[in-house]
Amino acid sequence: MTSVTPITTTPAVAPSKTERPSAKDTVRGGLVLTVVTGVVAVFWISPLALLVVTAIRPLSDFIGNGPLSWPSAFTWENFSDAWDIGNFATTYGNSALLLILKVPLGVLISAMLGFALAKLRMKFRRTVMFSVFLGLTIPIYIAIVPVFIMMRTAGATDSVIGLIGPYLAFGIPFEVLVLQSFFRQLPNEIIEAARVDGAGDWRIFWTIVLPLSAPALVTVLILDAVATWNEFLFALILLNSDANKTLPVGLLNFQGQFSNNTTGLAAGILIAVVPILLAYTLLQRWIVAGLTAGATKG
Amino acid sequence: MTSLSPRRRGGRWRPWLFALPALTVYVVFLVYPAVSSLWFSFTDWDGLSPAYNVVGLDNYARMLDDPVVLTAGKNNLIWSLVTIVFPVTIGLALALLLNGKVRAKPVLRLIFYAPGVLPLVSIASIWGWLYNPQYGAINSFLSLIGLGDLAQPWLGQDSTALWAVMVPAVWLRTGFPMLLYVAALQSIPAELYEAARVDGASRWRQFWHVTMPSLRSAHYIVLALSLIDSFKVFDMIYAMTYGGPGTATQVMGTWMYANVFQYYQAGYGTAIAVVITLIAIAVGIPYVRSQTRERAA
């Protein structure tokens, strides 16, 4: 799919000075655009900003002066209250454990499948590719009843371990899609040369393909970590006891308990989202690279 | 042909050793459950008892008489339309702004995509609070600017609930098209614009004759992925309204859930899930095929 633009036939000629806006106009235009975009950005981020302002004021101050006022007093108590009642120490631990167990494993097995699809002459390659990519379109709720029964039979409900299988399966289509398209761009000559030197597929995979694909692997790791951290539906049906809940399910419970304590609720929501916002800020480059991977190639 | 020659005869089965771990997990936890749901959809199973009867297409016939299915189907359609059209349009507009001579681009880009990384449940909590009729910021803001008459229980009445749930969805989904469009805009050669200017094309004409045609593959990806994603709606509605008030914000996913886990009608619930999944697959197939096609390396 190469995009053909109708204007390419005109030879590119540098426009004369008079047609180009003057430097002064450009600076002013840039300023106006910056202000316009800045206003939209402030509006965009206002729910989160309001959340911060609300979380650091006493409830009485919030009720007395309304949600849009500037706090007349500040407090950290909302955070300690929310932390204790929201059971965040436990839910954070569970989500982190799940992340550590699931994400590297998912990326590894997806990379192996991606390697087979991209670089090995595999039987039924196209059929496998089509069936796996089709998984992108399947909503999780089609699987919840059988998965619930399966886990109950296996005695794996109400355990973070029981989530690993379903999470892996629903992560595989996207991971394989991104990884195999990256592997495909690796030059065959390098792999053939290694093969001539006597390296087997397994060795080629570990010593050539994976190291050369580090950027794609990091991106997929991060995006899969975000998806795993945020997943809700499987966790909702498979986990019962408070001791085993992940962050999204725990947050939902917390929301119910704190419905009348707005400042505490705001603090709890912040506790839940600040780490992921921080991680996103630090890892932004990789996330953007992964999300836009498909956009620019034809 | 990008594949390598096999080292020895019969080598075409060896790659399956690499494929097997992922394929096994995929089949056990995605394919098998999906097919098994299809089977349950032909039964009257309640989800609890060990026994059930096969009732053929009864569950599907019943859906035709279920007014909530009608509401949910309509809501799914509205949801897909609104959470595609608005994010894509706003995302493109923001990308065009960010592609201009704006300063602090990285920060702005960071802000616009930020809602996209949050857990949907937390977004539901945040907006549930903003919409709160008594202590919510939205009604307070309306009073502040003299529109206090418009203050209302946004999530608590049929007329506004669905729209109120879609606003945060638009908020969180705008960042993705914006990122894709920013990347795609940067890859348009500057010569095209220079040439258009030489020909005396106005900004407006440049947009329609240079920018839009060059974004064709970005449009395709944005629309395909948004469409696929829109059928999966569940978390936001479950956490914000649980389908209510009444059934005003039910979608197929939440109505399926209610039937299975609240009314103990697993057979009927899975039939609802099967219908929406088949639609999602049918809609997604062109995209899946486009990704499967061999690309010239």
From TrEMBL, chain A:
<dbReference type="InterPro" id="IPR000515">
    <property type="entry name" value="MetI-like"/>
</dbReference>
<feature type="transmembrane region" description="Helical">
    <location>
        <begin position="204"/>
        <end position="223"/>
    </location>
</feature>
<dbReference type="Pfam" id="PF00528">
    <property type="entry name" value="BPD_transp_1"/>
</dbReference>
<feature type="domain" description="ABC transmembrane type-1">
    <location>
        <begin position="92"/>
        <end position="282"/>
    </location>
</feature>
<protein>
    <submittedName>
        <fullName>Carbohydrate ABC transporter permease</fullName>
    </submittedName>
</protein>
<keyword id="KW-0472">Membrane</keyword>
<keyword id="KW-0813">Transport</keyword>
<feature type="transmembrane region" description="Helical">
    <location>
        <begin position="264"/>
        <end position="283"/>
    </location>
</feature>
<feature type="transmembrane region" description="Helical">
    <location>
        <begin position="30"/>
        <end position="56"/>
    </location>
</feature>
<feature type="region of interest" description="Disordered">
    <location>
        <begin position="1"/>
        <end position="23"/>
    </location>
</feature>
<keyword id="KW-1133">Transmembrane helix</keyword>
<keyword id="KW-1003">Cell membrane</keyword>
<keyword id="KW-0812">Transmembrane</keyword>
<comment type="similarity">
    <text>Belongs to the binding-protein-dependent transport system permease family.</text>
</comment>
<feature type="transmembrane region" description="Helical">
    <location>
        <begin position="163"/>
        <end position="183"/>
    </location>
</feature>
<feature type="compositionally biased region" description="Low complexity">
    <location>
        <begin position="1"/>
        <end position="16"/>
    </location>
</feature>
<feature type="transmembrane region" description="Helical">
    <location>
        <begin position="130"/>
        <end position="151"/>
    </location>
</feature>
<dbReference type="GO" id="GO:0055085">
    <property type="term" value="P:transmembrane transport"/>
</dbReference>
<dbReference type="GO" id="GO:0005886">
    <property type="term" value="C:plasma membrane"/>
</dbReference>
<dbReference type="InterPro" id="IPR035906">
    <property type="entry name" value="MetI-like_sf"/>
</dbReference>
<feature type="transmembrane region" description="Helical">
    <location>
        <begin position="96"/>
        <end position="118"/>
    </location>
</feature>
UniProtKB/TrEMBL annotation, chain B:
<feature type="transmembrane region" description="Helical">
    <location>
        <begin position="110"/>
        <end position="130"/>
    </location>
</feature>
<feature type="transmembrane region" description="Helical">
    <location>
        <begin position="263"/>
        <end position="288"/>
    </location>
</feature>
<feature type="transmembrane region" description="Helical">
    <location>
        <begin position="161"/>
        <end position="183"/>
    </location>
</feature>
<keyword id="KW-1003">Cell membrane</keyword>
<comment type="similarity">
    <text>Belongs to the binding-protein-dependent transport system permease family.</text>
</comment>
<feature type="domain" description="ABC transmembrane type-1">
    <location>
        <begin position="73"/>
        <end position="289"/>
    </location>
</feature>
<keyword id="KW-0812">Transmembrane</keyword>
<feature type="transmembrane region" description="Helical">
    <location>
        <begin position="220"/>
        <end position="243"/>
    </location>
</feature>
<keyword id="KW-0813">Transport</keyword>
<protein>
    <submittedName>
        <fullName>Sugar ABC transporter permease</fullName>
    </submittedName>
</protein>
<dbReference type="InterPro" id="IPR051393">
    <property type="entry name" value="ABC_transporter_permease"/>
</dbReference>
<dbReference type="GO" id="GO:0005886">
    <property type="term" value="C:plasma membrane"/>
</dbReference>
<feature type="transmembrane region" description="Helical">
    <location>
        <begin position="16"/>
        <end position="40"/>
    </location>
</feature>
<dbReference type="GO" id="GO:0055085">
    <property type="term" value="P:transmembrane transport"/>
</dbReference>
<keyword id="KW-0472">Membrane</keyword>
<dbReference type="Pfam" id="PF00528">
    <property type="entry name" value="BPD_transp_1"/>
</dbReference>
<keyword id="KW-1133">Transmembrane helix</keyword>
<dbReference type="InterPro" id="IPR035906">
    <property type="entry name" value="MetI-like_sf"/>
</dbReference>
<feature type="transmembrane region" description="Helical">
    <location>
        <begin position="77"/>
        <end position="98"/>
    </location>
</feature>
<dbReference type="InterPro" id="IPR000515">
    <property type="entry name" value="MetI-like"/>
</dbReference>
